[in-house]
Amino acid sequence: MKIDKSAIQAAVQTAHSDFTSDQGGQNASYIPYLASVDPALFGISVVTADGEVFETGDSSFEFALESISKVFSMARAMDEVGLPQFHEKVGADPTGEPFNSVIAVALHDDKPLSPLVNAGAMSTVSLIPAGSAEERWQKILATQSAFAGREIKLSDAVNDSEQSTNFHNRAIAWLLYSGGTMYSDPMEACDVYTRQCSTLVTAVDLATMGATIAARGTNPLTKKAAITHPDIVPPMLAEMTMEGLYTASGDWAYRVGLPGKSGVGGGVLAVMPGVLAIAAFSPPLDPAGNSVRARKAVAQIASALNLNLYNASDYAT
Ligand code: GLU
What we know:
single chain, alpha+beta, 14 helices, binds glutamic acid
């Protein structure tokens, strides 16, 4: 499918000017660092599966990856342990509950269901084969970097802020351990999960990470493979459809029709397989945990470019 490249830049600019004065939402406050980020920041980027980069606004500001990190640890775990085992141990269904729900774990025999909620993400981390927590962390960091096409780094400021307040996640990790769905030491898994959320990316990095998914796991800027098994990409996209935008995932699929993922740092990513990825960042969140400006901008750009996975007839040649 070919998209007029000038239409991409126009859609990115229009979305930025349409939503920049939107005052809706509030920064996440349960992680002190996130509460302190300037709420006016707003950046957008599109990266195509053949490596063209479009950007506007605060697209080079580095923000915390947060929940979007779950996508890339999921990729690493699927790639290393294989799809059947990953599916059996973690799952592929929406929980219908908030991202940090304890009730969702209790309701489903301690099975996390989705790798894109906190329980499933920690279980996913624990599945990645490694001899130590440090080795597991380095694998996750290398995977984030391979998808982004540059060295992604941990923010000590974000990590310290999260590690000193992540008691709820620690409780979930122990719950999973008691139910047999945590495959390493639970506090190690929680620690590594917290670190993976505390790396910094720009909107351009995030769009590049998504474009690597769109290009079946090969980074379109570096031309290097970020995964060894491209057949994990469709299940990754399915998981993103199920649970990518928290409890608003169904609404997102209905209205936008693209697999996506958001994080409480204010990032939102959407992927049109084979074509491109759209990323936006702005800190204030709606009650579901999705950035207000970023969610609107990504949805509008997708619509302007006529990108919707469920409109397959539009792409028939
Ligand atoms: N580190 C955050 C947490 O575990 C990430 C949550 C998110 O972005 O949804 O609470």
